[in-house]
User: Fold these one by one.
Assistant:
Number 1:
Amino acid sequence: MKHKKLIAGIVGIVLGVIITFFIPTPHGLTHAGMIVLASLVTANIFWIFNVIPSFATGLLMLSSWVVLGAVKFEIAYQIFSTTTMWIIIGGLGLGAAATKTGLIKRIALKIMTFFPANFRGQTLALFTAGTIIAPMIPSAHPKTAMSTPIAKGISNALGYKPFGKGSSGLFLAALWGFFVTEASFLSATAQNYAFKGLLPAKAQAQLNWGNWFIMMIPWTIIILIGGYFLLTFLFKPKDDKPVSREFISKQLDELGPMSREEKITAAVILVAIVFWILESVFNIPAAVTAIIGVSVLVALKVLIPEDFKTRLSWNTIIFIGTVMALGNVMQSAGLTTWLRRILAPAISPIIGNIYITVIVLPIIIYLCKFVVVSLISTGTLITIGLLPFFSQMSFSPAIIAIIVTTSVNVWLLSYMNAPILTGSAAVQDSMASRGAMAKSSIGYMFLNIIGLLICVPLWQLMGIA
């Protein structure tokens, strides 16, 4: 429909006005809670239909709370002064340096030289390279944009036809390694910090870099091993003989010797990851480590002021901040208590048993992805819906953030996953067929639930389930 956005915008605003000013405040809910509820309804419609840029919708939502007297400015915008926001900014800065200097591409290509130049070997190489690189860049789009052209070059060198089995499989191997494994590391994507930021303080403290990594080890193993066998089963060409590694060697030769900027960036990122892992030992917040790392890169002229304008996604940073603000404000306005009572009959059976949760909640998220395109928006809506029930769960709410971050990354239909669209655009939509994308997504959806189920005993040993 030509005017879909305009119609959706009008409907969203009208619903917000009706809820705020014309519907009587239900028993047990304050007028402030009604304002927050109304703004959330309007914002969701704006996000689902992309009426205006997502970050602008978020800022208007926060401002409406202040203008209509639901909460004070200090509460509405408090999230922007938290460590979570600064680690996102710092992490994106480190990732920008790794991409700018060519360090990430060099690491990926170098790893590929250790594997056979056939479908099985290069699929495994893309899995390995992506998993190693994932925690270094907290943004999916540059990783998919960088990895898929490498996969296309390998596909061409191996003589695979566009949209054929081999071409589709290598494209998906690049996405699987560089994008899917983002859920394995807290620092691998800004959305992990966004979902973590919606949790209570105690649950957030449980999700430091090291704990997140440990909690996800069984899932990561299942996703990598299961994903490798899935892609080779579905897409391995009949004749899978090794060929020359000339393409990879040529790409490395074009990069030349490792530059001063690459060496500095590699050292800074390595030190940052060590400090993130040992955050509780050094007692230095992860955000401070990230900001110091970026400052060092600026001081040594690896990053310049212009990079902060062009290489950092400020609209994403602002959007994440606005959605994270919902947690505190909903509690402050009394909305969480009211929603808990209203939604209890439907939600309580799902969260009453950890095994039921890790099966049913991903399925709910998969279904939501047919409607809500944005990965962060989907995860935020699910987390906010469960927010009133965190105190009733027999397991830590930290697990909700884990389930959400693994389950929003589906690509059954092309529009469901923007980073994968970026990767596809980087190779002119010339590698994977729609059928291949759908089959691999269905496989991932099953593997994700299996991986989460296998994580449960570990989580129980850790005392969080």
Number 2:
Amino acid sequence: MRAIVMGSYGSPSVLQPADVPAPPERAGWVTVRLAASALNWHDVLVRQGRYSSPLPHIPGADGAGVRIDTNEAVVVLPSLFWGRGDAAPGADWEILGDHHSGTYAELVTVPAECAVPRPRGLSLAQAAALPLVGLTTFRALFSRGRLRSGESLLVLGASGGVATTAVALATAAGARAIVTSGATRKIDAARELGAAGGVDHTESDWVEAARALTPRGAGFDLVLDSVGRWAESVRCLAPGGRCVVLGASAGEQATLPVRPFYFGQYELIGTTMGSPRDMAGLLRFLDDHTVAPPVIDRTFPLAQAALAHERLEAGTGIGKIVLTHD
């Protein structure tokens, strides 16, 4: 089969098309013939060697296609071996494309619970773009963040997959979403998805500007921080507010003043992708609500995965980048 293989860690140039053997059959696993796969920042970290993936390796976590044993249209749930508990994943949990061959290929083999029905009304590109960010964001907002209709949400960022998905899901649930960005066009794009407004997070007073957009300037009920700016995120909260953290692209360390934190009755909540039960909850949510589909920035042929990674790292796009497997 055709696939994108990285023979070493490094720049996008390590991603090269190659002919490789089809994945072997395994008891309890199913094979999906992929029509599209989507990029995530996680793929960049895999490519850079952050997860010590075996070499040579096929990266990729997201995909959409057909289950070859049943001919059912499916999307790939990239959360492997989550375990029975929902509070946190078990010790064996990993993301597809870390140590198991991923979705930058014609075929991928996954545990049977990880081939889930493709949601109605989505194109192949939109379906491929949904699982990782959809599941991650659904868990962050609802399973962990307990977002409710009528509450206010601040999303750090405006243009990435998590940010655009958060605005779409929160708006569908009846929450009021505000975003941050350093680019006016990205805030404008978020407004088109349903965001009520946005602030420029490159300005020194952006926290105050964001709080001013909440009722009576009281702050946000929930902040979604996918970059690691904890101190500023907590300052954006209303008394009793929750900050859900799911990334560290802007910082690996954070310092918080302790007294304001406990006097504010704040919650700091960590989260990651999600369980099969979270995925089932996302699919029910999509059935029960009118939700804007995943935003697609651009598509590339599978063979141009390196170019797709260059665009992802440039950070100029809005939404998800998708590889087509025609």
Number 3:
Amino acid sequence: MCDTTAGPNEPTASLPRPAPGAAVDPITLEPVDEVEIITLVDNVFDGLLTGDERTRRPPMGMGMVAAPQFEGGRTPAGMLAEHGFSALVRVRRAGRVTTLLFDTGLSPDAMVVNAGRLGITLDDIHGVVLSHGHFDHAGGLAGLAGRRGVRSLPMVVHPGVWTRRRLAVPGRPAEELPTLSRRALDAEGFEVIERRDPSLLVDGSVLITGEVDRTTEFERGMPPPHQAWTGAEWVHDPAVADDQALVVHVRGRGLVVLTGCGHAGAINIVRHAQRLTGVDRLHALAGGLHLGGPAFEPVIAPTVEALTGLAPDLVVPGHCTGWRAQHALAAALPGAWVASSSGTTYHLTAA
């Protein structure tokens, strides 16, 4: 998909610069010629899914691994799936390709193993973006550091990514969630860049939303058991304020919005991206939409209705979207909905 590629020793290609104005003010997002999203980690791997002109599926067998129970001692390996999300984003504009890593999955090894099985070295990554601080999106940072080294590799995060959080379900012992360590990331060599406001990367052609405006009435965030530590007490943390998305404008097509969990709400995120960029057309929405489980089932119907009104060309709900929401989205948007699966590549080009 590329003519020339920015070298991995050019980290400034993906450094953020402050976007003008507050979140409600317009930002000039430069259109791109091509964007490729490779799902490195998702909750599901289905080796029988078929592709099309914009979707490339990996085969069921991605090389051979040791398996002594078989004659010959080997068996084909598929892609790893886990409760986490990670995507590699390649953006081409004016003959130059820049590669960003958006989230890193749950475990230290799934992302790097899957990348290896896809023939991706991860050596050409220009920057890392974390959608938020939950451990199922940041666990693979250890594997990334161990596989390629990350000296001076920019990593864009919201300042709230370091928040201590726990789940305090009534009737059960409270369970504190793993919390990202700024000290550990600095020691590994990541160049951590904290931005609460929107940032423009890759010569102004990739937008990181920063904190998302919450404007819908139905997207109210996490239920009461999700709590954050204030320094003095545990309090309900519905907003997950560090939730942010990655946005690209494909020339002549519209916005491509990539979410991690979508804690801010899928519709809030899309509308926020539209307001920031002044681009009304939604071309594609991919990533976790956090509509799974009883607490979020009431949000499914209004989300589907609003998203249907936006008429996207491609919808790839993954990770924490939940099976009920998947069914509803597939029924409402049969021409746009595509099943997500670890190892799948989505190739979107300008009109």
Number 4:
Amino acid sequence: MNVYRVLIVEDHPFQHQYLTTAFQAAGGFEVELAWDGATALQRLSRNRYDLLLTDLMMPQMDGVQLVQQLAQLHRPPALALMTAASRRMLVGCGQVAKNLGLQVAGLISKPVREAEIIGLRTRLDELNEQARAFSSRPRGCRSGDTLAKALQSGEIQAWFQPKMSLRDGRIVGAEALARWLHPAEGLLMPGAFIEEIENAQLDIELLTSILGQTLSAQAQWAQMGLTLPVSINLPTHLLDQYDLVDRLLAQVRVNQADPRQITFELTESSTTQLSSNYYAGACRLRLMGFGLAQDDFGKGYSSYFNLVSTPFTELKIDRSLVLGCGENDGLASALRSITELGRKLGLVTVAEGAETRAELDVLRRAQCDQVQGFIISPAIDRVELAALLKEDGPRPALS
């Protein structure tokens, strides 16, 4: 068992004793205590810790201020937050930490229980394993030339995550997601290379590669008598290229495909230099027959104004609103409101990131149209999806 150094920031004497005993009972921890944020920062400047656990309600420097200071350290520890305040407050403070680039190991409502402490140890084990995997990766393999060759050679592939109808349980679509079959590192998820592709200004090459592979897969499925619309992520800043829509349409036409079978999801990771480019590109995509989705709605800066002023056909509900909705009445209420708004605007609503049956039940009660997530299927290659489609038929939705 790994042993982790933990610094606990708490100003109540009883909590000091209680937390020390609880962590010792859970095992795998060396615990130190600090009474306030200033003392904690002094300790962090001198010593290395694996985890900082802090209460939010603290004198002089509250937990949020401590989080902001923590983010300025060269190598901050993982962070866990605890409070007797509302769960909504806890989640909001967790978002502060995540947006500052900190690794959030846990959000705990007081009183802290042993199971939650064991959960922290499990999360630290996961972070430790991720760090080892990252340090073992071959260096110097992310040059622009390497990325371009990976795109050209087909190492970076389109895999497809099915979308299931919550009305009848059938597969009604899929989202194309990039996977890199790296010759040395194995299967890499987008988080391992997408940012580097953007930095190398190869995002248009990635977009056209994923579109080309999607059109090829759809043609293969059509030969089997299978028709499936596919959605593809489109970084919004690419709409600054005035000829982008024409190039995408030409690629579809040369493959003798139907643009109505492709939906482009406008992502929030970037924006256009001019707002007119955003609206011009979005309108032209729809004029050419493509579907258009507002991606990650409910996260970041997605706005109601964009939703009602852009000719979207689909509303993608961000996974942050889905995760835990089975146990969180606030999230369930938000999902009901969003799906109702989608219906009034004539949009297909699609929830991302469903992992449990409880979450499916909430989405079904909210009358969400479609869902994707690991409980349905992870992203799979075109051959596996074809097999899944052949097995798919009229059947009841999951219950």
